[in-house]
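Dear colleagues,

As part of the handover before I leave the project, I'm documenting each prediction I ran so the next person doesn't have to rerun anything. This entry is a single chain, and its sequence is reproduced below.
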Amino acid sequence: MKVKIEEATGPLIAPLPFSLEEYASRLSKLRSAMRMQDLTVFVSFSPENIFWITGHDSPAYHFVQACVVTLDDVPVNLIRRIDATNTLLRSWSRRVVSYGDADEPMDVLADLLEDIACPGQRIGVETDSFFVSVRRFESLRRRRSKGLIAAQLVEPLRLIKSAEELSTMRRAARLTNAAMQTAVAMAREGVNENHIAGQVWNTLVSSGGEFPGLPPFIVSGPRTSLGHATWGGHILQTGDPVVFEIPGVINRYVAPLFRSGTVGDPAREIRRLEAAVIESLEILLASIKPGAIAEDVHRKSVASFARHGYAVAHRSGYSVGVNYAPDWGEGNLFSIVDGEMRAFEPGMVFHLVPGIYVPPEFVVVLSETIIVTERGVEVITAFPRKLFIC
C-alpha cells in the first residue's frame, strides 16, 4: 500500500539546534557510509540517531519511530501521528510518515520501504536499539524478508564531534558547573537531600538546560555506596558522605560531573581513597591523546588504584554526546575498559569516572568531562578536583 509522506514548509516554531551546514555534513557522512556497504536505504530507530540526522526531538520515543535515509532525497521520519509535528515543525528535514494508535508501525514502515526501494536492493537496518522489540523487528522482517542488512552506521559518526557539537558541550559543561556549585553550597548538616535535589533541578532548568537521560544523582549517608542511588529524603548529619553527579544538557548534548564530599571532616579511609582517585584521574588525563589505545589507558588507571590497595570493578570512562533516557552516556559506543582496542581520536568526548564503591559505607568518585584534542585533552568541566567539605 502506498504511504503518504507529509512535507511542511514555512517557518519553524523554534530555531534548529545546529546549522543547516552541520546537518548537510552529517547526511553526507552517513551516505558515504551507506555507499561503503552498498546500501540503497538506511533505517535508524534510535532517538539519539534520529535527532542527530534530522533534529527531530521528542521524549515520546517509547512509541516506534524511525528515520529512513536514501542516497538522493531528504530523510523521512516515521512517527506516531500525535508526535509528527516534532518533525514537521522542529526538524530540518520536515518530511514524515505518521501512523495512528491502532496501526502497526512496522507495517507502515514496510509499506514505505516498498515504495522507495526496489526488489533486491540492500536496506541497512539498525538491530541494536532500546526501543524496537524483537517482536516488532520480526514483524518487519516477515514483511521484508529479503534485502535487510544489519547496519549501525550513525554511532561511529557520532563519536567524533564537530566544532558546533563541541561548542554546545562546552555550554552544557558550564551549566553543570553552575548546578554543582548550587549543590555544594546547599550541603550542610540538617539539610534534606531532597531540597538539594530540588535546587539542582531548578538551576539546570532555569539556566536553559533540558531533561537529561538519567536524573542527577543527589545522595548522602550510607546510600552513597549504592550504584546510581539518588535522593531519598535523608537529612544530612555530621560524618555523612555526600555525592553529587550532575548532567547539564544543552541541545540534547550532555557534560556530566561527579564530586564526592563529607559533612564535617572525612574519615581517614575516605581521605586515603581520595588520594587514589585523584592520582588515577590525573593519569587518565595525561594518558588520553590521539593514537592512545583505550585498554592501555584503562589499565594504567587500574594499576594506579592497585598501588593504593584498591581493586577497580568498572570502566574508567565512557563517551558522551547526544543523550536520551535510559542513559546520558554513549558507553555503548565507546567505553574506556578492558578489551577496547580502538584508539582515541580528536573530537571524541568522554566522561572520566575513576572511583571506588565501598558498600555499605560510601563511594569516592571525582570525574571530569574531556574533549580529546590534537595534543591531549581539554577539560570542559570546572570544579575543584578534591573532596568538598560541608
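The chain has a mean pLDDT of 97. The longest strand covers residues 241-250.

All the best with the project,
I.
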